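Quick review question:
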């Protein structure tokens, strides 16, 4: 072995890249941003929608799912809050806007998106809370949505428990 070979630094391991985000995940993230804006400003859904569509990466999202989440959550805010209020420890208006928006998205998917298994809906909401929320907000989101799933999808939850 020559002197140059012995002094070469060891090859660096290849950097791990995060897996590419799915179009649905992007739709959820964008809907979260829009709901956050709506909760803070009270702007009309059209303005929030237009602003959100200007965000980088919007073209890579599942726009139909984004539309359903953003507009569905805004239209059904009172109903979703009623579902959530049975499982939270304070008024939904006292939640952080991020946790509130994440919980609304999770509850909306549990209520309306039957193509999304309840465990996936809960997990996706938890991931949103991890990415955008406070330190332990994801634990709160998980607990609330697990309980809400029993109300919104009782048969699916029961079947899942029997399999476990």
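Suggested answer, residue by residue:
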């Amino acid at each position: 072995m020559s002197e140059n070979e012995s002094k070469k630094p060891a090859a660096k391991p290849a950097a791990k890249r995060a897996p590419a985000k799915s179009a649905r995940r992007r739709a959820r993230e964008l809907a979260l941003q829009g709901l956050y804006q709506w909760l803070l400003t009270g702007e009309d859904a059209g303005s929030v929608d237009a602003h959100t569509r200007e965000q980088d990466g919007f073209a890579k999202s599942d726009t139909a799912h984004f539309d359903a989440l953003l507009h569905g959550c805004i239209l059904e805010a009172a109903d979703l809050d009623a579902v959530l209020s049975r499982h939270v420890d304070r008024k939904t208006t006292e939640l952080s806007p991020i946790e509130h928006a994440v919980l609304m998205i999770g509850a909306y998917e549990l209520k309306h998106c039957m193509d999304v298994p309840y465990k996936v809906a809960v997990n996706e909401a938890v991931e949103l809370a991890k990415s955008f929320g406070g330190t332990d907000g994801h634990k709160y989101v998980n607990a609330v949505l697990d309980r809400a799933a029993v109300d919104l999808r009782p048969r699916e939850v029961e079947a899942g428990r029997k399999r476990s």
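Why it works: The chain is about 70% helix and 0% strand. The mean pLDDT is 91.
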